[in-house]
Specification:
alpha+beta
Amino acid sequence: MMRKAIARVAAAATVAGVAAAGRGMEPRRLTGHYTVHFEEQSFQRCGSGEKWWVSDPGPLLARYRELVQGDYGTVYVTVRAEVSDRGQFGHLGMFPRTIAVRGVVQARAAGSGDCGGRELEVE
């Protein structure tokens, strides 16, 4: 039942956030953590303290479901995603950007050494 709720949240977020994520923008390669919690679907890049709202998890949602037991959790990913300009997105507008995932390069269970002290990734 909770998975259906997550799917509905993802669908609603997709409708609301597709335009915000810059339809037609060139996807960027990003590495970090994708997290699903109550009223949160976020991405946090390695080396950044800022979380971004995931308006459209696209192909990432299926990989997440394969890797996470239960409804909520975090996975370590490298994705190709469209990133919005700064604004207020997600639950209560708490997120400064939104992303729309267009491809998954890798996804695995999150671990303590995932980002390995890497600085912010630059394309």
